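INFO batch 0412 | record 1 of 1 | parsing
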Amino acid sequence: MKRMLMMLALVAAATAARAAAAAPADLDVDAVLKAADRYRTGGTAEGLQVETQVSVFQRDGSADKERRYTVFVQAGHRSLVLMRSPAEAGQKVLMLGDDYWLLLPGSQRPVRITPAQKLLGDASTGDIATLSWSEDYTGTLLGEERCEAPGQPGLGAPCLHLTLRSARKGLSYARIELWVGTKQHEPLRAELYVQSDKLAKLASFVTDKPAAPTRVDEMVLTDRLGSHKETRVRYLSRQPKQLPESWLNPMFLARNPALE
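INFO prediction complete | emitting tokens
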């Protein structure tokens, strides 16, 4: 048994070494992450408004629930999420750095929540409110691999495999294993790990034009801890938007539910 384990370890080490050797030695990992971010943000860095639709599907593929959100992503790790569906009308989530608040209609007291708080299905607050890997994680290049095409084992284009470690505490995931394209660095898929280093979700990214992608249109999340449901986060539109500073104050939001 020990001999078998040693052989497996040697094979794994050799595979990792070959992957690392295949990757460009002078690759700027931070630049790769910034390029991957642009596919999710549309290239807007200072202020962004994203109309987002979240749909949940059962294990058999049948539709379960659907919600709409308006997400304002601002510089300095700040975001505001407005819930647009009738079932959640008037609710808001505010993110300021590592602090998250839920604001409920009729209440003048913001409620502290965590970035792992579920919004719908397996889409957490952090999944919706944060769109930047380069600002939130430190990355290490593991090497070049082949990303298999769905349903076609052994086929697929080369891709880069990176390990991302959280750079601050207020993040949904402590570690992300991320695969991006070798040339344009578009995000392809990811494994999302929580603080206990358990694999919480699998993510795949659907781009507008697979052959020459310019943006990510959808993020597909598959739960790996319990329900195994599929949650699709679709980015319906993106446009530049700078919010008034007052909108980024939890007490102002509590006193002004209509944002007048």
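INFO post-check: Residues 4-21 have pLDDT under 50 and may be disordered.
INFO record closed
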